[in-house]
Amino acid sequence: MKTDNKYTSGDIEYAQSEDIGIMRWKDRGSKPVTLISNMHNSSDTSTVLRKNGVDHMPKFIDKYRRCKMCSTKAKEKRSNMICSTCEITLCKQCFKPYHKPT
Ligand SMILES: [Zn+2]
Ligand SMILES: [Zn+2]
Q1: How far apart are the CA of 92 and the centre of ligand 1, in A?
Q2: Is this prediction's pTM over 0.85?
């Protein structure tokens, strides 16, 4: 098989997590194309997470834990909400400020 270094349509990236396959490629000059295929059924809604934190989603857990942002030894603040992406505990007041770019 000979190697051809003439790229015609850019790189193709393929990533696969447990149930979801993600394929991404760049069309010449235009926006990158992302294709997400869910190998399960479609009841599993998939969210595309951006690095800037805009799409971080809160998730509720059984236990109450101390808020990573505002809880102190003197004044404990507990929450049963975590960020599903960062996997840290945040209360309602802190969820937004924590993810705001500074
Ligand atoms: Zn807090
Ligand atoms: Zn987060």
Answers
A1: 7
A2: no
